[in-house]
Amino acid sequence: MTSITDRSQTISEVVIEPYRIVVRTDLDWAVVLEVYDAVRTGEGAVIPPDEVPSTLESLTGRSVDKMAVDHPGTLSLTLDDRSRIDIGCDPSGRYEAWSVVAPDGVRAVAMPDGEVAFWDPPPVQQ
Hints:
It holds the Pfam family DUF6188. This protein has about 130 residues and is mainly beta.
């Protein structure tokens, strides 16, 4: 498992848009979901796609203690009570299912093939 961050942060906002959900934290991190077919609880129970928006909205105010990536392209959000939400890659293999953007510009994206691409922050302009 590859850790993205283990800095505790609070979910400050969940924005439901027509084709994506954006989860923002108090430390200016953003988790963007664009495919809802592979979201599970940490125990492995599938969250039906039509329930994903309300499930994520219910997390507003909760702390995320860790964000990590596991193969094949699953983003795990570990919450303050040690429960977990796992966001998998697109089962059809056609879309980027999720991305994480840190305030310094570091980015992780679940590619359609299940791999995860990481980008470093952009160089500082002087």
